[in-house]
TrEMBL record:
Protein known as: Integrase Int
Keyword Zinc-finger in annotation: no
Keywords attached to this entry: DNA integration, DNA recombination
SUPFAM superfamilies in the record: DNA breaking-rejoining enzymes
Gene Ontology molecular functions: DNA binding
Ranges of residues in domain Tyr recombinase: 1-122
Gene Ontology annotations of biological process type: DNA integration; DNA recombination
Native source species: Methyloglobulus morosus KoM1
Length: 122
């Protein structure tokens, strides 16, 4: 989920709530419905090659939800496992939302125009 968030810039709730009906691997895109978006507007999400690979790794694990753990949909990310992973990596004071900031920073560094980044980020 961390890798997927870094690839797409999606918010935590959009990643944990992502359903297979919102994904088109052939066209390499996903979409967030207006009722799931902070701005209440639908968001089209282009999927990088890495994001597609991540999604393919999740196929068959759950009928409707994309991201699961032991066959059950993941609903919470601030878990003991998340905090332990941050600790092992020597990372302090890091929130899930910081992944979105990293995604945006990478885009700016790569030359993505700010108005395009704004659209991509919903």
């Amino acid at each position: 989920m961390v890798r997927f968030s870094l690839e797409t810039g999606l918010r935590q709730a959009n990643v944990t709530g992502l359903q297979w009906t919102q994904v088109d691997l052939v066209r390499r895109c996903a979409w967030i419905h207006p009722d799931q978006a902070k701005a209440r507007r639908a968001i089209s999400v282009p999927l990088s090659k890495t994001a597609v690979v991540i999604l393919r790794e999740q196929m068959g694990k759950h009928e409707t939800k994309v991201f699961t753990y032991s066959g059950k949909p993941i609903t919470q990310v601030n878990t003991k496992a998340w905090r332990q992973a941050l600790s092992r990596a020597g990372i302090d004071n890091f929130r899930w939302y910081d992944l979105r900031h990293t995604w945006a920073s990478w885009h700016v560094q790569a030359g993505t125009p700010l108005h395009v980044l704004q659209e991509l980020g919903g």
